[in-house]
Amino acid sequence: MYQTEHLPPHDAAAEEAVLGSLLLDDEAIFKVAAFLKSEDFYRDKNRWTYEACARLYERREGINQVTVAHELAQNERLEAVGGYGYLSFLTTSVPTSVFVEHYGQIVHRTATMRSLINTAGQIAALGYEGGPDADTVLDKAEDLLFHLRGGRSPQDFVHIRQVIDSYLENTEPQDGREAAVPRILSDFERLDRVLGGLHRSDLVILAARPGMGKTSLALSIAYNAARQQKARIGVFSLEMTNDQLVERLLSAEAGVDVQRLRLGHMDSSFLGPQEHERILEATAVLSDTDIYLDDTPLLSVHEIRSKARRLHYEAGLDLVIIDYIQLIKGSGTDDNRGNENRVQQMGEISRTLKGLARELNVPVLALSQLSRAVESRQPHTPQLSDLRDSGAIEQDADVVLFIYRDDAYYSEEEWERRNPTKKYPEGIANIIIAKHRNGPTGQVDLFFQKKTARFYSLAAPSLQADDGEDF
Description:
This protein is of the alpha/beta class. It contains 17 helices and twelve strands.
């Protein structure tokens, strides 16, 4: 155990070596400016000297003994750090600036240890204070640790130049997988043309009545992105088991009827030799993707947030999928019948998911059920008011997509009776873009193959905006 009388972790020699390197070579700051902050320095005089170097760097002025001394004098701190004598001492503390990054990492690491000690005290205080809701207290404690581990501090104003630089870096073409995927493409050309893909920090709601294929579409997007873009996908399945999800993915990739695949899992005689071969090939393909599955039932939104953050830290994430939002457990109660009604709980859930998208800087694709109001009117086309339990879902979402299929409501005979001049739209799925915060709304048609639960792009264009113009 540590003793309270011990000095906080620090390394004075490493601090001096960093500053000496900067004074010897004004280009050395490029190696440490991205991760080393002035508050990482334990000794005041070292912190003030680094601040002076950082200000000169920001103004694109040279860094040397003369300019740093002048900067310190301007802020009335030259004498406080030890004057010209201390700056001269710093230049003799290292023979070369080659190892400045190594010295900087030592300073940063000891600062992290000090922050850990401070955070431990804050968490202890939370435990002593307690509260009526343990989840809220745990969430606050986790926030403290997550911010510490991520090296993050509360966001403040930034100059537009920094935003532009970051934007340009994120939109430059990247070679390899080290850089983050700038946006997730569904690989359905016309849908991607309308949405521009699923964008980072966006909350995307995919809603439909049961049986329309929303899980299948979400899995198709996940699979396509994982295959084509090498994206890392985290899937929370609150309704289906991991085995059921894998069956759907294997069925779609192998082109084998999902029911035959399920029966073949129990009795291999249900499948022919070619089907077996295709399934083995599909298994190899899927195993090579970065798709992570979690089928824990009755998760709270705080647990989803915690698990997503941990996976993002450990493996990196490009997309989070949640199937589906109404199955997320409300906070403050073991079921959905707490003092808050479900509408209020759904408001909290949608806000938290939007916050998660921004916090991790990934798109969050949340599936949602629609209310039964769809069934009681003609036509059965979904509307934003059909989003079940909460208007907050519509408000918080950046994009709202609906799936509608006529063949789910009308048999071929009934369709021909109602629409004698129109061909029966078997397998035609209308993807309705009902809300698009940063673009047009409209409709894109895809083909849904029921036996493999897979969506395909249609060969013929079927894409029209609300103003009647083609996308």
